[in-house]
Amino acid sequence: MAAIAKILLLGSGELGREFTISAKRLGCHVVACDSYAGAPAMQMADEAEVFAMLDGDALRAAITRHAPDFIVPEVEAIRTEVLAEVEAEGHVVVPSARATQMTMNRDRIREVAAVELGLHTSRYRYAESLAEAEAGAAHTGFPCVIKPVMSSSGKGQSTVRDAGELARAWDYAVANMRGDRRRVIVEQFVDFDYEITLLTVRTRDGIRFCPPIGHRQERGDYQESWQPAAMAAPVLAAAQDMARKVVDNLGGFGLFGVEFFVKGEEVIFSELSPRPHDTGMVTLISQDLSEFDLHARAILGLPVPQPRLLGASASAVILADRDATAFGYAGLAEALAVAGGDIDVRLFGKPVTRPWRRMGVALARAGDTDAARRLAAEAASRVRINYDN
Ligand SMILES: Nc1ncnc2c1ncn2[C@@H]1O[C@H](COP(=O)(O)OP(=O)(O)OP(=O)(O)O)[C@@H](O)[C@H]1O
Ligand SMILES: NCC(=O)N[C@@H]1O[C@H](COP(=O)([O-])[O-])[C@@H](O)[C@H]1O
Ligand SMILES: [Mg+2]
């Protein structure tokens, strides 16, 4: 194999797809894995493997069969105990088996951040029953946010305004949690002014920060993001200091998406991804090196320069609204014709639609972030999904 490195990619969604493109440009061989065939990254990769990554035996078999130089998780739902075992046997897990274990479970990363590192977080309690959730809410006060400790993209998450809504939130969390732990975190609702993702790259030559990314979420899932987010210098410095502490604790090399809420001068750590972040897709148009390029370079031990911002930019998601296997796209030309800035679109090639499933993203670069957000939203709205059934 005349590749510079072999990568086993665990998870093959849109983030893995762009990462695969970045890694392949640098001469890597990529084996893309996920639980279904034809996943976005598989369409770009050298090889594909379909299996349940929470199945420890299947995961270990894939690692043994491919003997990769780097194991690169792309989703959280992975049998991370196996990653810890193979790391101990000499495999390289990106960024580290510890990082994947801590971030797969909200309670574990919360303990690292709030207890071990003493970072400022929202008030919280864990609960394994409705009665414990009620006690948790008594501790946080209302409103509070209930989330399964194992979930992502807002799945199973709800905001509870009063005690009467708790039972429904508990049931919803239990019904939508993944993995095998019936546990939720009850978090104080933070009435933040804005929230950011701070893309933080841990390289052999030290830490690099991308300019902060602002974003807006609905149903716990991201709708639009923009870069740079306007922040006072001391507030950004405080976030950078916290991000540095967390990624140094987790260890390894690669890019992390560290999430914060900001209220006035107060910076509240929320959570992080030890991998490229969905809100960071804006870097596909905003930076000379995207978050995917930075992740690839950091993993491979290549030089990682300070990323350069090319201009104020934004991303806006393109969502499906129903279940379908037969569908097509229209309006791409109209989207790319949006005037007033530089426009681009990514369609992920997902084989089926679901209500709210992210199928693509529109990107825009303009004079300022407000203009970029307007253009990205306009471009996203012009891409239509035509359902045949
Ligand atoms: N305690 C809170 N107070 C106010 N808003 C919150 C709180 N927790 C979560 N949110 C809102 O919900 C969004 C999603 O929450 P969080 O990042 O914890 O979920 P997630 O499922 O891990 O999402 P992702 O995987 O996309 O990062 C946050 O970005 C924020 O907008
Ligand atoms: N917030 C995490 C996130 O955005 N993850 C991205 O979504 C994919 C799953 O999408 P799907 O649910 O449409 O298959 C994941 O594979 C990853 O690329
Ligand atoms: Mg999040």
How would you portray this structure in words?
With 389 residues, the protein is α+β, with helices and mostly antiparallel strands. Helices cover 32% and strands 28% of the residues. It contains twelve helices and 19 strands. The protein has helices spanning 14-25, 56-66, 80-88, 97-104, 106-116, 130-140, 166-176, 233-250, 283-286, 291-300, 332-336, 369-382; strands spanning 6-10, 29-34, 47-50, 70-73, 124-127, 144-148, 158-160, 184-188, 194-203, 206-209, 213-218, 221-227, 254-263, 266-273, 313-319, 327-330, 342-347, 358-365, 384-387. The strands form four sheets. Strands 9, 10, 11, 12, 13, 14, 15, 17 and 18 form a nine-stranded antiparallel sheet that branches. Strand 13 and strand 14 (266-273) form a beta hairpin. The longest helix has 18 residues, at 233-250. The radius of gyration is 20 Å and the shape is globular. Adenosine-5'-triphosphate binds at residues 122, 145, 147, 151-154, 157, 187, 189-190, 195, 217, 220, 222, 259, 270-271, 278.
Please give the structural blueprint:
Layout: E1 6-10, H1 14-25, E2 29-34, E3 47-50, H2 56-66, E4 70-73, H3 80-88, H4 97-104, H5 106-116, E5 124-127, H6 130-140, E6 144-148, E7 158-160, H7 166-176, E8 184-188, E9 194-203, E10 206-209, E11 213-218, E12 221-227, H8 233-250, E13 254-263, E14 266-273, H9 283-286, H10 291-300, E15 313-319, E16 327-330, H11 332-336, E17 342-347, E18 358-365, H12 369-382, E19 384-387
Parallel strand pairs: 1-2, 1-4, 2-3
Antiparallel strand pairs: 5-8, 6-7, 6-8, 9-10, 9-11, 9-13, 11-12, 12-15, 13-14, 15-18, 16-19, 17-18
The structure holds adenosine-5'-triphosphate, glycinamide ribonucleotide and magnesium ion.
Residues 122, 145, 147, 151-154, 157, 187, 189-190, 195, 217, 220, 222, 259, 270-271, 278 line the site of adenosine-5'-triphosphate (ATP).
Organism: Sphingomonas quercus
Binding site for Mg(2+): 259, 271
InterPro entries: ATP-grasp, ATP-grasp_carboxylate-amine, PurT, PurT/PurK_preATP-grasp, PurT_C
